[in-house]
Design brief:
The chain is α/β, with parallel strands linked by helices. It contains eight helices and 13 strands. It has helices at residues 41-48, 82-92, 97-110, 126-138, 156-171, 183-186, 206-212, 256-271; strands at 3-12, 15-25, 30-34, 56-60, 67-70, 144-147, 175-180, 191-196, 199-204, 216-220, 229-232, 235-240, 250-252. A hairpin with a 2-residue loop joins strand 11 (229-232) and strand 12. The structure holds adenosine-5'-triphosphate. This is ABC transporter ATP-binding protein.
């Protein structure tokens, strides 16, 4: 089934972690939540899996046993081996005998963990541990798979394994909602929700996000307005919300990173005291 959060607001004391945020994820889709530190990604995921109660808004999600969740924490038991972790979680969800063994060994291969299958989770690299956590979350083929920064700390080659696992879970019919701080990988998701300090700056497919972006971004070495500019590689970018500048500055086609930074800057400027 689909899962959704509709106009959800979550506060912690004086902090508004989410303000009127909506997201919907359908079977077969991978929806990526992107945003920097403190944007509200973890809070939205925890709200979807029922670990945080919203102050207002509606959450629609499958029953607990139909949810697979990799939290921002370790996601596995340090003293258990890779196989023992998978067996333990599989057992909780009622997998036994050959079905359990086949699923476990299949996931070990997909996660590239064969060489570490009998190693304790505490002895895995950070990236291997994230992949084990993702494998554990998807082992019982949940209807809703929720992954909190599954690729953080995972090297670029292992991220390919991880994305293959995520795509296969979606192809298998799961609705997948994941958070990431890597904007290049978020471009691969079916839908994006860009969060910034508790608010959704933009949502939709990457094409929708690009089509909805207004203004012009230029590449320069000497920005004329430093508070509308940022570094990209050896150059700097400069954002012109109201259209191209009156100069021969090189106009660039923005990627997701440019768009997210430009939208966040616009918000900062709108909220700055006048
Ligand atoms: N249990 C809590 N008590 C108080 N404040 C909280 C709590 N959980 C989150 N917050 C605050 O809510 C805001 C959103 O936090 P959240 O963890 O959802 O962001 P995030 O996008 O996942 O960021 P990060 O990638 O840094 O974890 C932050 O300002 C955070 O400090």
């Amino acid at each position: 089934m689909s899962a959704a959060a509709r106009s959800v607001t979550v506060t912690f004391g004086a902090t508004t972690a989410l303000a009127d945020v909506s997201v919907e994820v359908k079977p077969g889709q991978v929806v990526a939540l992107v945003g920097g530190d403190g944007a509200g990604k973890t809070t939205l995921l925890r709200t979807l899996v029922g670990e945080t109660a919203p102050d207002s808004g509606i959450v629609e999600a499958p029953a607990k046993e139909q949810i697979g969740y990799l939290s921002a924490g370790p996601g596995s038991w340090a003293a258990l081996t890779v196989r023992q972790n998978l067996d333990f979680v599989g057992g909780i969800y009622g997998l036994t005998g050959n079905a359990l063994a086949e699923r476990r060994e299949d996931l070990i291969d997909r996660a590239g963990l064969r060489i570490a299958a009998d190693r304790q989770a505490s002895a895995l690299s950070g990236g291997m541990r994230r992949k084990l956590g993702a494998a554990m979350a998807m082992q019982h083929r949940p209807e809703l798979l929720v992954l909190d920064e599954p690729s953080t700390g995972v090297d670029p080659v292992s991220r390919i394994d991880l994305w293959r696992m995520i795509s296969e879970a979606a192809a298998d019919g799961a609705a997948v909602l994941m958070s990431t701080t890597y904007l290049d990988e978020a471009e691969r998701a079916s839908e994006l929700v860009v969060l910034d300090r508790g608010r959704a700056l933009t949502t939709g497919s990457y094409d929708d996000v690009r089509a909805g972006f207004t203004g012009t971004i230029t590449a320069t070495t000497t920005p004329t307005r430093p508070d509308w500019s940022w570094r990209r590689g050896r150059q700097r970018r400069e954002y012109w919300p109201d259209g191209p500048p009156d100069s021969d500055a090189e106009v660039v086609t923005p990627d997701l990173e440019d768009i997210v930074i430009a939208l966040s800057m616009t918000r900062r400027h709108q909220e700055a005291p006048v």
